[in-house]
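Comment thread on ticket #2218

A.B. wrote:
> Attaching the input chain for the structure job we discussed in standup.
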Amino acid sequence: MTNDFSVAGLYVVVVGAARSGVAAAELLARRGARVTVSEARGSVAAADRLRGAGIALELGGHRDATLARADLVVLSPGVSPRLPGIAGARRRGIPIISEVELAARWLQGRIVAVTGTKGKSTTSVLTGRMFDAAGRRTLVGGNVGTALSSQVEESDPDVIHVVEVSSFQLELTNTFRPWIAVLLNLSADHLDRHDGFQEYAEAKARIFANQTSADTMVINADDPHVLELARRGLARRLLFGVTSRITDGVVVAGDAIVRRSAEGDQALIPLSSVRLPGSHLLSDVVAAAAVGTIGGVSAEAMQRAVASFDGLPHTLEPVGEIASVRFVNDSKATNVMAARAAIESFTGGLVVIMGGRYKGGALSELGPVLAARANGIVAIGEARVRFRDALADVIEVREAETMGAAVRTAFALARPGGTVLLAPACASLDMFTDYADRGNQFKKEVGRLADDQTER
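C.D. wrote:
> Ran it. Output below, let me know if you need it in another format.
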């Protein structure tokens, strides 16, 4: 918390009127700023709400003149800092920060921040449930759930804020200091916005930048990129892993997740309590348990939280079964690493719906795992041709114009006992509002297909 931070009387421009931008604008207005929200779209759902709070709204583009007058610019995560008006404001010396940075300056509670290329939401929500089970007052937000700015008024020294943070949110932080910083994994992602993997990694590494020796970083010993980034941090380290040989950390040993130290293994969670499919989701459970050990959560509370956690929507979410073909929704697999992990959660008989707006990563890396487990893929969205070019030599690739056509094409390719898996490896914004809309459309089309099969 930055106790002396004040925006009273300042002219602040919030760029972007999605969930976090609206929350930031309202927080700023409550704290005495004169606020304008700049939005590229021609309309926003929250327009009346913003204007009712005395907040000016400029629609249809980001005006350089508006940004040039600002004392402070707050960027929503979906807005690139490379936009000409934003870059011009920076050259004029106007501070530009993310919504997470803004909110964190006023939080009174301690912050557990979670980032990584995949698994952030699962780890964040499960960590919050572990603290809840231990009787701690916990608020989960950031990139999942509610925007951090909407939690500021509820914050007090006893609150634990579990915050999912993306590279977009972290790249514009300068005082953000988590009590516990978690880096789950790292692979190429968002290269449509970041200038290469190294810039993406540097944005992620900012989660450690302001930590001191009084704080803790929780780092994945199974991921060499994570270990490399963590070397520069000043905080204490706690390793976790599923496959690595760790002598001090949180690991999987035998039939349990344990806290391993020089004194021996302390059992935390029996693997029989874990209800999530896939080894990558097990890694998320181990990471959450590592945070819990730092925060004083008992093994009994961890077990209760894990045993009651079935996972999140759009993350290996079972949708239904039609004519002995299962349908599974992993719309949240928005990058190559996440899609690969989803595919590896099955032993065979897959037809995978993939595609959308390409944002980097080597699609060819999916070839071996698809060849070993899948009968074919159905490519959708802007990246259809990329998938065909990268994978047609190793697996049958069909294309579909709509989600409905994709579901029906995949069902036709599937064999009894097999699975149709939505694991796009791409962003959703070419065809859908967001990944949740894409997943919901998938579920809707599976429902329509089921109705059609019943009527026959």
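A.B. wrote:
> Thanks. Noting for the ticket: The chain has 16 helices and 20 strands.
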